[in-house]
Amino acid sequence: MYFSRPSDNMNGYRYSKTASVLGKLVHVIRIFGVFTAIVMFGVGVDIAIHHYTFGFYIMLMSLFVFFLEITWAITLFLNVCIKNEFNPIFSCWEIVLWLRLWKKSMLYTIFSLVFFLWPHGLWLSNIAGILLLWLSFLYIVVTFKDLVQKRSDFVIVPKGQATTSYDQYDDISDLLGDSVQISLSADNLSELDQDGILEL
C-alpha cells in the first residue's frame, strides 16, 4: 500500500499555486500590452507635435503593438463568424499567429531600443521603452511556462480552474472545428419539428 508523503503534497501544492499565478499572468499581460501601446501612441503624438516626422513612425509602431496584443480577440471573432475551417482567411491568419511568445519578446526588445536611442528629449520616451522591456520580459516568462508544461508529464490544476496558455484563443478552432454544424433546412428537420414550425 502506498502512502503519500507530506513533502509530495507540499510540492504538488506549490506547483499548482505557481501554475495558478502564471495562468493569471496571461490576463495581466493582455492588459499591460494594451496600456503599453497607448503610452507609445502618446509618445508618438508628442514627438509629431514637436515637428518630428519620426513621431508618425512611432504611432504606426504603437498601432502594430496594439494589433499584436488583441490577436486573441480577433482569433475568437474569426472563429465565431467564419464557420468554414478551410477558409483562406484562416491560412493567412496563421501567419499573424506565428508571431507570438518569444518572437513578440524579441520584437518588443528591438522596439524599446528605438525609444532609448532617439528619445527626442522626452522623458516619456524612456517610460515607453521601459514598459516595452517589461512586456518583453513577461513574454519570456510565459514562453518558459509553456515549455515547462509541454515537457512535464502532468500538470496539477486547482479545482474548478482550467489550464490557460497565453494565446488560449489562438487554438479555439480545434474546439469549434469538432462541433457539427447542422443547417436548419427542411431536409434536416423531423416531421414533428416541421409541424411545430408551421404552427408558429
TrEMBL record:
UniProt keyword Membrane present: yes
Keywords associated with the record: Membrane, Transmembrane, Transmembrane helix
Highest taxon of source: Eukaryota
Residue ranges that the Swiss-Prot or TrEMBL entry lists as coiled coil: none
TM annotation in the entry: 21-42, 54-80, 101-118, 124-142
Family matches, as InterPro entries: TMEM72
Official protein name in the record: Uncharacterized protein LOC112686158
Organism of derivation: Sipha flava (yellow sugarcane aphid)
Gene (name only): LOC112686158
